[in-house]
Design brief:
Elements lengths: L3 H12 L4 H8 L3 H10 L21 H10 L5 H10 L6 H11 L19 E11 L9 E10 L5 E6 L4 H15 L5 E4 L6 E4 L5 E3 L1 H10 L2 E4 L9 H15 L7 H14 L13 H8 L15 E6 L5 E4 L2 E4 L7 E6 L3 E6 L2 E7 L7 E2 L7 H10 L9 E2 L11 H16 L1
Length: about 425
């Protein structure tokens, strides 16, 4: 039985020049049926006494859907259905799904996959994915950001965060944030062979893990496991959410900066991703997570304090460059300092004496100046130079990136003084 909405889809594809066989493949209908309804045109099919001729609820939104899919071919039908419902659509999701599938660019059929289910609390899967973004605060500058994704295998609960690096310190910090967010630790975590997790493989085929990752695993009590080479599909529970996040969240949105990107992501995870009925489990993700959470291992009583040590030179303006960002040290600190990088903080030591502690800054070329690190007039000059404070209070722009606005009277006064000196 073909409904009026299906008929509109068939005729629309026919007007675009698709062959009968191509339309049949896209709609899943028999070619004879497609040919019959193309010949009939807009004449609605008659099925006994059933009243026909009702306008399709989807019809007013076809142009919108077509424009969205043309601009962003990877947008999911779920998201498009949500968008047109916000515009007044009251019809069925299946009509949207069929139409979007019909107008989406064709792709080759994918091979079947074998699903592996895990018991509650048993496994999580972790990976990074590359995204390209232009923040509205930095028009014209293309940034590469990385999405850290942590997915519980049983409930499919997602913790995710965009970061500027995928280095070891970021990896450890994201793990700690994920454990805090879910309130526990799974028995094992599955990784792709990312360099920050897997350093090598010995002659017997045994995986050699990064020592800092092993220290994190020992502290939290989980077992790291690497998926087999060229078998990233064994991490399907974390690979599929990357595509889901890209299509349903990331595309066709605007972000001011990294903080805004993560704020919008958190909201989407709470209201959409973890609130949906999962297609495989057929359970609401957040409800399945509530049942899985008690099966997780408890968080350790003490913080993870394994650190990375390195030497750094203090700049003339009293800053230390670490990971592309800048951190202040007190006045009179020696030029060479020892830096201890923890997953969530930076400690700076001067000849073994702790002189500064900073939270790790996300992003690049950001500066954190502690007012107490400057004294007297130097303190006033420094804080004035870093005049563009953000909501974070002490997180400021680099000196020289911004020119202070002054009245023209200031420049006229300076010019008059210089002229007086030259006349002497």
């Amino acid at each position: 039985m073909i409904q009026l909405g299906d008929l509109i889809v068939i005729l629309d594809l026919h007007q675009q020049g698709l062959s009968i066989s191509a339309i049949a493949r896209r709609t899943g209908r028999d070619p004879k049926t497609i040919r019959k309804y193309i010949e009939r045109g807009l004449e609605p099919p008659a099925y006994g006494p059933r009243q026909v001729g009702r306008p399709s609820k989807l019809a007013p939104y076809l142009d919108y859907l077509r424009e969205r899919v043309e601009a962003f071919p990877e947008l999911s039908a779920v998201r498009l259905n949500r968008e047109i419902r916000e515009r007044g659509y009251t019809g069925a999701y299946t009509a949207v799904k069929r139409f979007v599938a019909a107008i989406r660019p064709e792709s080759l059929p994918k091979p079947f996959e074998v699903r592996f289910e895990t018991p509650a609390g048993q496994q999580a899967q972790v990976d990074f994915a590359r995204f390209v973004v232009t923040f509205s605060d930095e028009p014209g500058i293309v940034r590469i950001v990385w999405l850290f994704s942590f997915v519980l295998g049983h409930s499919r609960y997602i913790f995710a965060r965009f970061v500027m690096h995928q280095d070891l310190q970021t990896l450890l910090r994201c793990h700690m944030q994920a454990f805090a967010a879910i309130g526990g630790v799974p028995i094992e975590i599955l990784y792709d062979r990312m360099k920050t997790a897997v350093t090598s493989e010995d002659g017997a085929g045994h995986i050699v893990y990064n020592r800092s990752l092993l220290a994190l695993a020992q502290h939290y009590g989980f077992l790291p496991k690497a998926c087999r080479p060229y078998r990233a599909k064994t991490k399907g529970k974390v690979e599929r959410p990357f595509s889901y996040i890209r299509q349903d969240f990331f595309l066709a949105r605007n972000f001011r900066n990294l903080d805004d990107l993560n704020t919008q992501l958190d909201d989407w995870l709470m209201t959409v991703a973890n609130a949906r009925v999962h297609g495989t489990t057929q359970k609401v993700v957040s409800e399945a997570f509530a049942a899985e959470q008690p099966e997780l291992q408890r968080l350790p009583a003490t913080p993870f304090d394994t650190l990375l040590k390195l030497e750094r030179r203090v700049s003339h303006d009293g800053l230390v460059s670490i990971g592309g960002n800048y951190y202040s040290v007190p006045d009179r600190t020696r030029r060479i300092v020892e830096v201890h990088q923890l997953p969530d903080s930076i400690r700076i030591l001067d000849q073994g004496r702790l002189v500064a502690v900073h939270p790790v800054l996300e992003g690049r070329r950001r500066t954190r100046v502690v007012a107490e690190h400057r004294q007297g007039a130097a303190r006033a000059r420094t804080m004035s130079a870093f005049s563009r404070a953000t909501d974070h209070g002490a997180v400021l722009g680099r000196p020289g990136e911004h020119v202070a606005r002054r009245s023209l009277d200031v420049y006229q006064s300076v010019a008059a003084r210089l002229a007086t000196r030259e006349g002497r």
